[in-house]
């Protein structure tokens, strides 16, 4: 089955070559960071987490969103998602792998990362995050492997896998909840100290993940014989619509509490994010772009004629992903540190090396997804031939 | 397909995973650490420091405690504020005690700088969040760091409401311009460090370096170190001499640095 990834068109090998090259550049950049230290990043005393941890947070959402395909298919027997389920699981595998790599490159002493398991600390949310993430990876690899090989052989999956599939549903919710708890339990950082953080994370995840899946489906439809089916893609777009509506609602709820109460330590972070603070406004244009994209995408998604036109849908999905990436992958993490507990406004911007490492991890993750999708597509083409 | 090879790999993989997990689980369940007593060691139920801000402010440019601490502990002098390492330093009053600052505060006080250091909280958030127990609270209340276990995730820095923790963004040794003191270990890149209330001096029966030098330079009682649980201790006596405040008391961290104002 795995050998299917070794035979492909010129276009396939070009993609593989490109992703491998970018991943390799990332590895070289990381070696520089490994020898010099995190001093090569834009991080600082006041902003100790940045690009890496933000990408980790964004991608946990993408990984968790597989549940939006798995749940309707396995729990409600929604047949149209039959072909999509494996794509969702493969996407989750790639996304969780990227999450783990982003955590790894953020460590000051990466060779000691197993200390988290050697000295398990139940009161640390980071310990739990490592547990739920590795558990989620194992579950998805197992479920994808078992269901996919069964399908390949034309038999029903063994009955013992069903409870594991059901377990993957709450588990997906848990990975993003625990990731939100990493932040929302810190009295030191009022920006994150909000009960809406976990629900917000989930809503934005269920908008961005399925959007990515729609894009993959449309690309596969165009360039391969793999067709997830129009009904499946339509249903996914409805999921994105609901999730995006919930996400925007949650953002407004949060803004109301912070701004109407007027408590300085809550207000200042949002001031920095949307208007700038003490003349520092690096994130302001991005945040307004994000809000514009989010609202525009939602309005367009709500119009059935536009949502069901796949050409428009593709563009809308790109907009949704961009909006949420800016919100989570750019604004959410660093703003928790701006201003600092001592009232200092230190801005953060990633360095070139930091950017290359980030791109390298994305390339590595998409390489895994490409290889897995190639296997899925080839098997499907063979079955249908 | 070689079915038996696949079956072997599966079994072997599970076995290795199981063996790997068994050891740490066993370690978590059993065993407490006991420390031997050192003769002459200073001991307390709960160590605390009282800073008499009224006296400290009279010596606006004094850096005696900062220099003493940083030299004794091989703290590097890094010019770039983004990568600075600080165990004890001065911050503007209005930023340190933002709840106490208001537009009509005595201009002299608002612009003045007060000493800040690790608060050795009774309920330390850094200890709560650390995923490897590389930072922990001793029985006498001192919040310690094990730089050999620290993985450099900086979660403790995110969790500390006082900005008391520093991360080694690079190898600190080239920046120890005053000459490396062999009595105290230097750190490596990628780990977190902070004030330890001079545990190495307590072992020898000495008060923390900052307190010792401060009382010499600024007069006795400017900084006082002692057991806050002992009703007859110097810190308890000092707290009776005036009104004292702590940094961000509303967060429930129970900081153990008291400021007489």
Q: What does this entry look like structurally?
A:
The complex is a heterodimer of chains A (385) and B (261). Chain A has a domain at 188-200 and 225-350. Chain A is globular and about 65 Å long. In chain A, helix 6 runs antiparallel to helix 7 (161-184). Chain A has helices spanning 10-36, 51-64, 67-75, 84-106, 115-118, 125-153, 161-184, 197-223, 230-261, 264-274, 284-302, 304-307, 310-335, 352-384. Chain A is mainly alpha-helical and 385 residues long. By secondary structure, chain B is an alpha+beta fold. Chain B has one domain (47-260): Alpha-Beta Plaits, CATH 3.30.70. In chain B, the strands form four sheets. Chain B has a four-stranded mixed β-sheet with strand order 8-1-10-9. A two-stranded antiparallel sheet of chain B has the order 2-3. The model of chain B is unreliable at 30-34 (pLDDT under 50). The chains are: A mainly alpha (385), B alpha+beta (261).
Notable features of this structure?
heterodimer, A: 385 residues, globular, B: 261 residues, alpha+beta, four-stranded mixed beta sheet, two-stranded antiparallel ribbon, 14% strand, elongated
**Mean of all residue-level pLDDT scores of chain A:** 95
Number-wise, the strands of chain A total 0
Query: Can you write the helix and strand succession of chain A as a string?
Result: HHHHHHHHHHHHHH
Q: In total, how many beta strands of chain B? A: 10
CATH architecture of chain B: 2-Layer Sandwich
Radius of gyration of chain B: 22 Å
What is the count of structural domains of chain B? 1
Low-confidence stretches of chain B: 30-34
| Adjacency order of strands in the biggest sheet of chain B | 8-1-10-9
So what's the overall shape of chain A? globular
Mean pLDDT of chain B: 90
Number of helices of chain B: 10
Number of helices of chain A: 14
Could you give a short account of the major beta sheet of chain B? 4 strands, mixed
Oligomer state equals heterodimer
Radius of gyration of chain A over all CA atoms, rounded: 21 Å
Distance between the termini of chain A: 16 Å
Low-confidence stretches of chain A: none
